[in-house]
Amino acid sequence: MLKVALTGGIGSGKTAVTDYLSSLDVMVLDADQFAHEVTARGEDAVDEIVKALGPAVLSPDGDLDRAEIRKLVFSDPEKRAELEAIVHPRVRQKMNEVAKRTTTSYVIFSIPLLVETRQAANFDHVVVVEAPRELRAKRVLERNGLDHDAFSAIDDAQASDVERRRAANNIIQNDGSLQSLYTQVDALHRRLIDLSQKKAQTAK
Description:
Shape: globular
Low-confidence stretches: none
Order of helices and strands: EHEHHHHEEHHHEH
Number of strands: 5
Helix content: 55-70%
CATH architecture of the largest domain: 3-Layer(aba) Sandwich
CATH class of the largest domain: Alpha Beta
Oligomer: single chain
Number of helices: 9
Structural class: alpha/beta
CATH topology of the largest domain: Rossmann fold
Strand content: 5-15%
Number of domains: 2
Distance between the termini: 13 Å
CATH superfamily of the largest domain: P-loop containing nucleotide triphosphate hydrolases
């Protein structure tokens, strides 16, 4: 089984790519979804996060206030590092546990902070989704309701396009139509199946 990491800046269109890959029966593991699971009410990570970031990040009903956390960590690199040290190992463990059970030729690990957390070397292949900053900002403001300052805070905290390209085996440009995107993903899908078959033959 080929382990494939997919990453890209905020608003680059990672979800559009992974949704299409899912329609092709590819197993997609989304780090953001697993992060929500490991930080859900009652999980041990919640207590650690409250201890690290303070009681203001916990709502009266015991849920994490994700907007408050986002505001706090993107203005304080040390707090962000503390949060990541709590959440990321748990996410990696859960994603790898699920991946081990799959029978597909390759698995996509969608990890927004792949480069920032120095995980690229853990994968057989790295795919980067790119789009111009102005277009990414427009998408995020329309989709998530964030203002431009919030977008900039998140984007500035992430790796640059240059840094992501250094880790990339494939780059998908998502600055055009959906059909253009899907054409690129179809070509990627064929390539990954081929790489998976070659890996399996080498392992024999």
